């Protein structure tokens, strides 16, 4: 869930600190509600990325020019989830299987993937406003990232196998840092933002202000 909790907010112009904060709060509430019998982690959802980008007219990975109107829809979805949960507790889950059979839910998941596919391709290619065609170095780093994630998910021992996205990203980042900053094969990582960043900060739920 690290990918959705940290990456999804960045893709739609939200502050990831807000996502991480409320992800932790919701996880604690869930853990208390189930009495610790079902350990789980609640993160944000990639399903919101497409609607948010369409509603705001933003480009993926860029600050949204008009994120405020989408908050109402996200809050409404958050209110609807527990309502559906209560209905399922009372009426059971058979009606969901009839209303949304596997062929339908599978198509929805596929549609989410297809919506995000162009974003993934553009990001993996290193394309941007100044470089619409991307570059070969970025593509090799993307291949390394995917390979690392897959290898960790399949072959890593113990706890590491549960963190493929995080560890795969770390491996690819270190490789990029060495090759770009050390050997000049790509655009160097700019640490100027880190140098001026505060040691402590609070989540900004209203980043457009």
Quick structural summary:
The protein has nine helices and no strands.
- The helicity comes to 55-70%
Q: What are the secondary-structure elements, in order, as H or E?
A: HHHHHHHHH
Largest sheet: none
Helical stretch tally: 9
Question: Given the helix and strand composition, which structural class is it?
Answer: mainly alpha
Membrane topology: Multi-pass membrane protein
Subcellular location: Membrane
Keywords: Membrane, Transmembrane, Transmembrane helix, Transport
Family: Belongs to the nucleobase:cation symporter-2 (NCS2) (TC 2.A.40) family.
Could you walk me through the main structural features you see in this protein, from its secondary elements to its overall organization?
This protein has helices spanning 2-12, 16-33, 49-56, 68-91, 94-99, 102-125, 136-155, 164-182, 192-196. The protein is mainly α. The longest helix has 24 residues, at 68-91. The model has no long low-confidence stretch (mean pLDDT 82). InterPro entries: NCS2. This is Uracil permease.
Keywords:
209 residues, mainly alpha, 9 helices, 65% helix, globular, transport, xanthine transmembrane transporter activity
Summarize the SSE layout with pairings:
Elements: H1 2-12, H2 16-33, H3 49-56, H4 68-91, H5 94-99, H6 102-125, H7 136-155, H8 164-182, H9 192-196
Helix pairs in contact: 1-2, 7-8
């Amino acid at each position: 869930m690290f990918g959705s909790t940290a990456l999804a907010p960045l893709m739609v112009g939200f502050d990831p600190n807000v996502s991480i904060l409320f992800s932790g709060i919701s996880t604690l509430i869930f853990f208390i509600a189930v009495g610790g019998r079902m350990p789980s982690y609640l993160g944000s959802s990639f399903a919101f990325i497409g609607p948010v980008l369409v509603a705001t007219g933003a480009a993926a990975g860029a600050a949204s020019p008009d994120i405020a109107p989408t908050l109402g829809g996200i809050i409404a979805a958050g209110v609807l989830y527990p309502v559906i949960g209560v209905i399922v507790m009372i009426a059971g889950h058979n009606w969901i299987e009839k209303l949304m059979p596997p062929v339908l839910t599978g198509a929805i998941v596929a549609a989410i993937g297809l919506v995000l596919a162009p974003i993934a391709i553009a990001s993996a290619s290193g394309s941007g406003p100044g470089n619409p065609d991307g570059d070969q170095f970025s593509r090799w780093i993307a291949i390394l990232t995917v390979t690392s994630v897959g290898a960790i998910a399949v072959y890593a021992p113990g706890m590491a196998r549960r963190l493929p996205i995080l560890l795969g990203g770390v491996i690819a980042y270190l490789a990029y840092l060495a090759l770009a900053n050390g050997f000049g094969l790509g655009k160097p990582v700019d640490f100027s933002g880190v140098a001026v960043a505060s040691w402590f900060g609070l989540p900004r739920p209203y980043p457009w202000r």
